[in-house]
Amino acid sequence: MMSLIVSGISMLRATEVWYGFFGLWMGAWLTSWAVAFPVVLFVAPLARRMVTRITVQR
Question: How far apart are the C-alpha atoms of 5 and 16, rounded to whole Å?
């Protein structure tokens, strides 16, 4: 959901195109989702471990 919103805002700011915007947006979103999903799968466990190390009191 976040990549959908971010890609839409980025596309609108970069192109300022209204006609055909939806098609451009969906193309940009598919690309951003294809990158974001694997990155989240890799980064989320690392972030959880870091937060656990910071917040667990010894």
Answer: 16
Could you list the pLDDT tens digit for every one of the 58 residues in the chain? 888 888 888 888 888 888 888 998 898 899 888 998 999 999 999 999 999 999 987 6
Residue 19: which domain range?
A: 2-55
Query: Angle of helix 2-15 relative to helix 21-55, nearest 10 degrees?
Result: 130
Q: What is the DSSP string of 6-51?
A: HHHHHHHHHH---TTHHHHHHHHHHHHHHHHHHHHHHHHHHHHHHH
CB atoms within 10 A of CB 28: 19
Q: Domain total for the chain?
A: 1
